[in-house]
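for the writeup, i need someone to sanity check this before i put it in the appendix. the sequnce is what the collaborator sent (i think, or maybe the updated version? ugh). structure was predicted straight from it, no edits. if anything looks off just tell me and ill rerun, i have time this weekend
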Amino acid sequence: MRKSMNGRNFELPPLELLVAFESAARHLSFTRAGAEIALTQSAVSRQVLALEERLGVPLFRRLHRALALTEDGATFYAATVEALSRIDRATRAIRHSERAQTVVVTTTAGFAGLWLIPRLATFIAEHPDVDVRISASNTLVNLERDGVDLAIRYRPVRSVGPEDGIRLFGETVSPVCSPRLLRPPHPPLARPADLAAHTLLRMEPDGGNQLQDWGLWLQAMKLGDLRPARVLHFSSYDQLISAAIAGQGVALGRVPLIDSHLKSRKLVAPFSDAVVSPRCYFLVASHATADKPAVRAFMAWLEASARAPGSGRRRDRARS
């Protein structure tokens, strides 16, 4: 096949024929080559034959249950290995260069939607050449295996040591709701026991974790046996907060995740009683990419954002 490139003509077989030939020549077997490149033995044989017809010479000697390279085959194999290796190195270099300006971050949907994404514009403005990719999931991923640079995780404080990452901030929890729930015709919300007349918005059960539910706060208020009028369940915390803003019930608010909604009064706290959560948010970096400039820049920005007023660290000392 003749191709014109920058004024030069190249006599090049199709790439798939070269790949099949290289694998067959390396294994001296059409069967093993097929297994390697996901083709049948007969398909590899046909591709090698098509290559031989293009070149006009045999590349293999077909022996009984064996293959052997001809002299032309050995010469062409060496050239094919060199060419494919150079293309492979160039491809990897280009991909690495592109990825050097990419930061892949995994965290929960609630943290992403309520805290991280609303602040992300400041990082993008400071680093317009960095492509930030956020994977919002409650699934715990392996950073190195899954190609993720950073994880923002939510763990019990007692289980987090220096080797587990960088602490960003803790949180406090207390009931929050839309201001409309504080007005007639809705039942009163003057004291914690009044929650029995309201709809509580709860997270789906998560291994008995009280912190994403009401258990922690209700126990602190000595209302562990409280039975609300009804319950609505949600699979992600940002969905739950959207329902609270819409007036569908009372949520257990997690500060600082909902700071902006409290400031704008989309949500209000009907009681002054807040409880310190035994959990915190912390940052983990992949060992494989922690030294990438883009990753270091994002980590520095994240730590600075966590220290900013209204972002969380100043609330770590709320009463327990």
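The chain has ten helices and twelve strands. The chain has a mean pLDDT of 87.
thx in advance!!
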